[in-house]
């Protein structure tokens, strides 16, 4: 998907073949295998990866995921997307991504700590505040980031809070980081709603009720929207009259899942995506909107809270469906990396911001990036995704051209 998107944009921008090759291929790819002692006394081997896509604009930045489906190919694609995302919103970073192939839900806290510290130890020559700055992703959280920071700091002999972002506030994290992606999604939905002059209240369906999905839902409901559909890995729920978000959140915190929630009907997850709504937010994994689903969508705004939720084949269909406005993933879910950048800046300066300062700066950057996309889309008569990718890829290409090729 990432390569198909890049090839299409590179052709549109008429990038020279030399430049295409330089900015398409990951600059560094690390594959590691390491042992972890489990609670049973057994020693298990795990495979981990870290990909740094390019370093033309500054150190690389990107999440770490602990997931059984992690592969080097997946990590490379996510690093590429992160490159265009950082360039689009004006951050001084290249894209990176990392991960370990594991099932964190089946591991104890002690086992997770052992895995995190061994993985971090393998990464130490490749990461650092001026090299590569990891952050949380699927299967990881602020505790994982705290262990990574501590492992790195113990190795160099002094505290280095800027080596990771997404840490607890008590050890150099920033206020607002956990809510940043979801609040960014909700902010952009509100901006597009005003642009399209959609009457309220908005009817919203969210696929995925993790951090991004739940925060997006909370913010939109507070702004007057009606949540009519939501799903997680256990169930897809639908109630055309509306689902009480706060009751749903309480139920999820109590049971750990959405399945069995009494105030909505359960249905197939793909069927939920195709229900009538004003805003559809895929906030789970990649490739959930394929060409079959794209034909059946009945939303007005598609806000991509996840990375790569729409396949290239589906994109061709959606480009013909002018009634659907797409907020592309590299803009829509960029709130997380933007506030991660704020955290890194605060760590480097040892000067910390209020939550209001964080969110004001976030909204200013998102608003500026959206304006740039809308202008490029209008002037070049291309989709919002093509506009977003073109702006990001063009900036990286220009940086690579200016820096030249090292002999």
UniProtKB/TrEMBL annotation:
InterPro entries in alphabetical order? Aminoacid_DH-like_N_sf, Glu/Leu/Phe/Val/Trp_DH, Glu/Leu/Phe/Val/Trp_DH_C, Glu/Leu/Phe/Val/Trp_DH_dimer, Glu_DH, NAD(P)-bd_dom_sf, NAD_bind_Glu_DH
Residue span, Glutamate/phenylalanine/leucine/valine/L-tryptophan dehydrogenase C-terminal domain: 174-404
Q: Keyword Oxidoreductase on this protein?
A: yes
Cross-referenced SMART domains, in alphabetical order?
A: ELFV_dehydrog (SM00839)
Please name the Pfam families in this protein's record: ELFV_dehydrog, ELFV_dehydrog_N
The answer to whether the entry has keyword Oxidoreductase is yes
Per UniProt, which keywords does this protein have? Oxidoreductase
The record's similarity note reads: Belongs to the Glu/Leu/Phe/Val dehydrogenases family.
Name of the molecule in the record: Glutamate dehydrogenase
Q: Which organism is it from?
A: Candidatus Methylacidiphilum infernorum
Q: Mind giving the lineage of the organism this protein is from? A: Bacteria, Pseudomonadati, Verrucomicrobiota, Methylacidiphilae, Methylacidiphilales
């Amino acid at each position: 998907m990432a390569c198909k998107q890049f090839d299409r944009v590179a052709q549109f921008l008429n990038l020279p073949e030399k430049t295409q090759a330089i900015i398409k291929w990951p600059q560094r790819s690390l594959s590691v295998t390491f042992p972890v002692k489990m609670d049973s006394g057994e020693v298990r081997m795990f495979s981990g990866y870290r990909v740094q896509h390019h370093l033309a604009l500054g150190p690389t930045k990107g999440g770490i995921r602990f997931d059984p489906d992690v592969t080097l190919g997946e990590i490379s694609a996510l690093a590429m997307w992160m490159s265009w995302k950082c360039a689009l919103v004006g951050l001084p970073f290249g894209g990176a991504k990392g991960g370990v192939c594991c099932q964190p839900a089946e591991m104890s806290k002690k086992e997770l700590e052992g895995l995190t510290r061994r993985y971090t130890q393998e990464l130490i020559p490749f990461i650092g505040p001026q090299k590569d700055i990891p952050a949380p992703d699927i299967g990881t959280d602020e505790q994982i980031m705290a262990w990574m920071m501590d492992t790195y700091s113990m190795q160099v002999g002094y505290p280095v809070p800027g080596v990771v972002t997404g840490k607890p506030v008590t050890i150099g994290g920033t206020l607002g980081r956990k809510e940043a992606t979801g609040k960014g999604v909700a902010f952009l939905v509100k901006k597009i709603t005003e642009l399209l002059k959609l009457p309220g209240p908005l009817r919203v369906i969210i696929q995925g009720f993790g951090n991004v999905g739940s925060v997006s839902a909370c913010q939109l409901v507070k702004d007057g929207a009606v949540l009519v559909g939501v799903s997680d890995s256990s169930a897809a729920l639908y109630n055309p009259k509306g689902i009480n978000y706060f009751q749903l959140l309480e139920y999820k915190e109590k049971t750990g899942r959405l399945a069995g929630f009494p105030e909505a009907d359960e249905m197939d997850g793909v069927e939920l995506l195709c229900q009538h709504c004003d805003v559809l937010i895929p906030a789970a994994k990649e490739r959930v909107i394929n060409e079959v689903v794209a034909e059946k969508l009945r939303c007005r705004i598609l806000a991509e809270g996840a990375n790569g939720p729409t396949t290239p084949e589906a994109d061709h269909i959606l480009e013909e469906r002018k009634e659907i406005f797409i907020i592309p993933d590299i803009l829509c879910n960029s709130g997380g990396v933007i506030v991660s950048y704020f955290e890194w800046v605060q760590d480097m300066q040892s000067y910390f911001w209020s939550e209001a300062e964080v969110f004001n700066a976030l909204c200013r950057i998102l608003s500026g990036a959206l304006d740039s996309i809308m202008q490029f889309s209008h002037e070049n008569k291309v989709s919002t995704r093509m506009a977003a990718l073109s702006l990001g890829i063009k900036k990286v290409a220009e940086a690579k051209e200016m820096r030249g090729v090292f002999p």
